[in-house]
UniProtKB/TrEMBL annotation:
It comes from the Bacteria. Residues 170-385 form the PPM-type phosphatase domain. Keywords: Hydrolase, Phosphoprotein. The modification 4-aspartylphosphate is found at residue 58. InterPro entries: Bact_Sigma-Reg, CheY-like_superfamily, PPM-type-like_dom_sf, PPM-type_phosphatase-like_dom, Sig_transdc_resp-reg_receiver. GO terms for molecular function: phosphatase activity. Residues 4-124 form the Response regulatory domain. The keyword Hydrolase applies. GO terms for biological process: phosphorelay signal transduction system. This is SpoIIE family protein phosphatase. Gene3D superfamilies: 3.40.50.2300, PPM-type phosphatase domain.
Length: 389
């Protein structure tokens, strides 16, 4: 692409001088000159053809002088457009004014063409740098736009309407997911397996960012589709593991907890595939971490079987599910929030609704972090069992 130069000077012989001196560059398509004879004509040309790279402008001209033209050029706010001011050597006051108002460089009359060529070349190098920076900035904006769209898509695939089951008084459920980056690898889900059973799950992909978000979407789809076929939690995890082993790349895997609640009896059957143990908040008898079931994360080794365990929730009992972005939240001294603090916070929140329970844990972890940014995705799901009415 030729460097487009607009020469603005009321002296007619300058056009012939520039054309003759730069004839080889013009012939090779490196430079392309356009000529105007005052600032008004130059401004009209700029408005009609705003793709010039360099303005080579005299200061003292009729109609509109070079300083006024420079002010108009500044209004265009194009950092890649460079203005070189030309004036008599004795006109240093105006030259200095032009430089203070954004001119890239200057040349004095009578023009030393060799010096002008070096000045133009410096401007060309600066223009190339600015355009590269603009291209990189535009690329970053496109990436950010794509990430924003991806974040909205990711949020849209997770249940986000609460109360989730407004006509069902047998249980209450609430969940949140906050990614450490634009998109994340955590997810939660819940659904009625049938009219008597509620399935709910939480999971954490091993990576972060876009790769984790893609694998998260795959994992969530696999687990939900498998769970809705009415498999038990252990069978669901085993089948999901087989499918995710086929999809996993770069050693990615996902830890997951999946459980089914009998909404009439409070019985919960669950399977833990390498995930953080949920907190059981008993309405009258303290808190405890649910025992693990010994299962490995999904997507690592095919052919595994997954064990199950069961508990019975009394009316008023709650389960708090979370990813390690909660328990491993750090303060500026590198200390982790930990399961002990989490259980204490859950105990203090006994009797609160799932929404308020999650808000209480969120406040506790933020206070502990003392303003430090989270280094991992933070996802929480809370479920309270009520009396079967």
């Amino acid at each position: 692409m030729a460097i487009k130069i607009l020469s603005v000077d009321d002296e007619q012989d300058l056009e012939a001088l520039l054309t003759q001196y730069f004839r080889r560059k013009i012939r090779r398509g490196e430079y392309e000159f356009t000529f105007a004879h005052d600032g008004v004509e130059a401004l009209r040309i700029l408005l009609e053809h705003p793709d010039f790279d360099i303005i080579l402008s005299d200061i003292n001209m009729p109609e509109m002088d070079g300083l006024t033209l420079l002010a108009k050029i500044n209004e265009m706010r194009d950092p890649a457009l460079k203005c070189i001011i030309v004036s008599a050597y004795g006109d240093m006051e105006n030259i200095r004014t032009a430089m203070n108002h954004g001119a890239f460089d200057f040349a004095t009359k009578p023009i030393d063409m060799d010096d002008l060529e070096r000045t133009i070349q410096k401007a060309v190098e600066e223009i190339a740098f600015v355009k590269q920076a603009q291209a990189e900035h535009h690329a970053l904006e496109e990436i950010q736009y794509d990430l924003n769209v991806a974040r909205e898509i990711q949020r849209s695939i997770l249940p986000d309407r609460f109360p989730a089951f407004p006509d069902d008084t047998r249980f209450d459920i609430y969940a949140t997911m906050n990614a450490a980056k634009a998109v994340g690898g955590d997810f939660y889900d819940f659904f009625l397996v049938d009219e008597n059973h509620l399935g709910f799950t939480i999971a954490d992909v091993s990576d972060k960012g876009v790769p984790a978000a893609i694998f998260m979407a795959i994992s969530r789809t696999v687990i939900r589709a498998t769970a809705l076929s009415q498999l038990s939690p252990g069978a669901c995890m085993a089948r999901s593991n087989e499918l995710l082993c086929r999809e996993s790349v770069n050693g990615m895997f996902v830890t997951a907890f999946y459980a089914i609640l009998n909404v009439h009896t409070g019985d919960v059957v669950y399977c833990n595939a390498g995930h953080c143990p949920p907190v059981w908040i008993r309405d009258t008898d303290g808190t405890a971490l649910l025992p693990l079931t010994g299962g490995m994360a999904l997507g690592v080794v095919p052919g595994l079987t997954y064990a199950e365990r069961s508990i019975r929730l009394a009316p008023g009992d709650s389960l708090f599910l979370y990813t390690d972005g909660v328990s491993e939240a750090q303060n500026p001294r590198g200390e982790q929030y930990g399961e002990i603090r989490l259980m204490r916070t859950c105990a203090d929140a006994r009797g609160l609704s799932p929404r308020k329970l999650i808000a209480s844990v969120s406040l506790s972890t933020r206070t502990f972090a003392e303003g430090a940014d989270p280094n991992d995705d933070v996802t929480m799901l809370a479920l309270t069992y009520k009396r079967d009415e």
